[in-house]
């Protein structure tokens, strides 16, 4: 007689916030799948729904609360995890029926909560479901690119940020473990590794930059430059995110010139005016930063720099904002995002004097985005006629969409290709650039 296996419980997942949260979601789902659970693509088919929340800004918290409310309305059995888990009382007060609330990167707790809410039926078959045979996590991104988290937490105490309260101080992963994960991802088809953390430049500081042995011989230091060099030898694109402009970042630029690391840096400058940076409790070395950017471009002429800025920070004067605009005009960053300042519960900046009126924030935000859009358009126009390497993300009909080395997924621009129906996602091809607009490039396979 054939053995009829009991159906495993199904888990749904809503993942909000940054790529670091997405990595947490992948790890949680990987563990649940290894425990025998299956995944549900919708609310209706799920025995329990996980909502991985973001709690960085009040607007993000509201989005998280809305997602929790939707999951409860559509399914009713909801477990909350992520950054907003620090505010369990707020969540429970608004949604008393939530089954459990856990904090950021508390993998064991959230998996335990799922086991309690939707137990696996006893079965020798279901209890021994293996994880990914290559050892990697279940992926929530396309096969050809993967986020690689190298550390958690942050030692900075910026006045507008509560990340250390949510995720703790810097906790770096061992470099040999990171390299093993990266090797498995590349073996499974990853063509682009996106290195993420709260503060990539500080990687290894808590490990005292100790060295660790590698399987095939040799060793690797717990240092951003050494880690980047080893990752660059795996044959995939390596893209660095959330890099604070510490002096030792200069050592990474030659790796870009050698082709080991993509000529791309994601640096959260936040502002340029010294008085605002001081109020933010961030380094106020904006003049030297401009000098360093110029030197980086001498070493790696194609380096793309993306950043984010806060407008309307308490005490920001019109002179401060004009200083920022002039700095941006000189820095000519490739990609710029901006946020209007908003108070975050628990942040020291909430108590600063001279708040900026909302209408002034909006006006400054519009001016900043107009300036940076013009700079972006000028820089992209200069690429017309060039041939660039492009990684393909989507193919449809006779066209395709991809990204150049200057573009990270989801946050930067794209390259739109004609006569490209023969390509596949993950292909890296030469593309002749024919046109450009403020954010995107247009071309044809060379």
Kindly name the structural category. alpha/beta
Q: Tally the helices.
A: 12
* First-to-last CA distance: 60 Å
- Overall pLDDT score: 89
Widest sheet, order of strands: 2-1-3-4-5
Unreliable stretches (pLDDT < 50, length at least 5) are 124-136
Give the radius of gyration: 23 Å
Largest sheet: 5 strands, parallel
Please indicate the percent range of residues in DSSP E strands (runs of 2 or more): 15-25%
Share of helical residues: 25-40%
List strands and helices in order, with pairings.
Blueprint: E1 10-15, H1 19-34, E2 38-39, E3 48-53, H2 58-74, E4 78-82, H3 88-94, E5 100-101, H4 107-117, E6 145-149, E7 151-152, H5 163-167, E8 171-172, H6 175-187, E9 192-196, E10 211-213, E11 219-221, H7 224-231, E12 237-240, H8 253-257, E13 264-266, H9 274-280, H10 286-299, E14 304-311, H11 318-331, E15 335-340, H12 358-381, E16 387-396, E17 399-404, E18 415-417, E19 428-436, E20 441-445
Parallel strand pairs: 1-2, 1-3, 3-4, 4-5, 6-9, 9-12, 13-14, 14-15, 18-20
Antiparallel strand pairs: 7-8, 10-11, 16-17, 16-19, 17-18, 19-20
Helix pairs in contact: 1-4, 11-12
